[in-house]
């Protein structure tokens, strides 16, 4: 039996949960945007946060900006797959879009910290692909934070202070990349995603496909 392209086993697979973490300023947002532009099959997870909106950010696009009471309610109603305190605010990943994406075999990308990545492991281990981005140097990390122009001096000093804590979790990730050049880094991330999509364990239909391929006698 020949299969149509749409029915081919490698066209239907379990969705990936792609986690991108790094110290603040190493380039997660930049690489995430480039990845989303280059691959329409990936949906970005939009976190809820109690942090105030930065200039240029849009509610329900960059984050769901919520107050403390609403964040408390979301925790109470079990609406997060993970949440954490980061830089004095709370951030959490809403559960419903994750469940929906997995049901549809879609890939979803998370820009979250190591605390969030760790919380996803027990429930979603077989879907997870974890990637950590390192800056080429601490000097370059600070230069990027300053060049971004979104944070005060005080905030930048705090983010640099916390960068070492974040970097200390690098070994918990499956893939660790140095973001020297955005195009090079994007190519590496895309290679990881492509290879992870092809993993045998993500293709539930391979077993019946192989059975009909070689016939019942085998
Ligand atoms: N490879 C690179 N070379 C030079 N500049 C870069 C590179 N990658 C990102 N940048 C720049 O560094 C700054 C910080 O990047 P970005 O906002 O993507 O970091 P982030 O890790 O998402 O930070 P945060 O965790 O605070 O959201 C931006 O101005 C971005 O344009
Ligand atoms: N554990 C989680 N961490 C998150 C989430 N959304 C974002 N983040 C991380 O917070 C810091 C700061 O982000 P910023 O946009 O305020 O600069 C960064 O490391 C993000 O990865 C989340 O839902 N859960």
From TrEMBL:
Main location: cytoplasm
Keyword terms of this UniProt record: ATP-binding, Cytoplasm, Kinase, Nucleotide-binding, Transferase
Gene3D superfamilies noted in UniProt: Guanylate Kinase phosphate binding domain, P-loop containing nucleotide triphosphate hydrolases
PROSITE patterns, per the entry: GUANYLATE_KINASE_2 (PS50052)
InterPro entries: GK/Ca_channel_bsu, Guanylate_kin-like_dom, Guanylate_kinase, P-loop_NTPase
Family matches, as SUPFAM superfamilies: P-loop containing nucleoside triphosphate hydrolases
Subcellular localization, as worded in the UniProt entry: Cytoplasm
Residue ranges of domain Guanylate kinase-like in the record: 15-194
CDD domains linked: GMPK (cd00071)
Top EC class for this record: transferase
Positions with a binding annotation for ATP: 22-29
EC number: 2.7.4.8
Catalytic reaction(s) noted: GMP + ATP = GDP + ADP
Gene Ontology molecular function terms on file: GMP kinase activity
Family annotation (Pfam families): Guanylate_kin
Domain of life, source organism: Bacteria
Keyword Nucleotide-binding: yes
Entry similarity comment: Belongs to the guanylate kinase family.
Function of the protein: Essential for recycling GMP and indirectly, cGMP.
Name recorded for this polypeptide: Guanylate kinase
